[in-house]
């Protein structure tokens, strides 16, 4: 599975961005997809996931502001980010794993999101 993340950029606090993660290669809809982020000097953190069934998980820090979705026909996962805050500034990575695996096996290259105050 190859993952290509896009959609990052510079936005003012309170603004919105939509990230996309296009998958190619082995793209079964059963894959669990996730978005992670890594701020400078910090560890990479899980932001949100979506299972093949459509079930979702959100970190507390983004609940109510971010929405993950997937279009299996387009092999693409989206992250709609609203009400962005400066603390959301990070490199965002999409990742994929088979549902029975603990670890994410496939990673995209990351896209920078910068939120100015």
Name some characteristics of this structure.
seven-stranded mixed sheet; mainly beta; four-stranded antiparallel sheet
Describe this structure in words.
- The protein is built from no helices and 11 strands.
- By secondary structure, it is mainly β.
- Strands 2, 4, 5, 6, 9, 10 and 11 form a 7-stranded mixed β-sheet that branches.
- 0% of the residues lie in helices and 53% in strands.
- The relative contact order is 0.32.
- It is globular and about 40 Å long.
- Strand 7 (66-71) and strand 8 form a beta hairpin.
Measured between the Cα atoms of the first and last residue, the distance is 37 Å
What share of residues is helical? under 10%
Strand content: over 45%
Shape: globular
Low-confidence stretches: none
| Class inferred from helices and paired strands | mainly beta
| Count of beta strands | 11
What gyration radius follows from the Cα positions, in whole Å?
13 Å
Order of helical and strand elements: EEEEEEEEEEE
- pLDDT average, as an integer? 95
Largest sheet: 7 strands, mixed
How many helix segments?
0
In terms of topology, how is this protein built?
Blueprint: E1 2-6, E2 9-12, E3 17-24, E4 32-38, E5 44-50, E6 56-58, E7 66-71, E8 76-81, E9 90-97, E10 106-107, E11 111-116
Parallel strand pairs: 2-11
Antiparallel strand pairs: 1-3, 3-8, 4-5, 4-9, 5-6, 7-8, 9-10, 9-11
Summarize the structure.
This protein has no helices and eleven strands. The protein has 117 residues and is mostly beta strands.
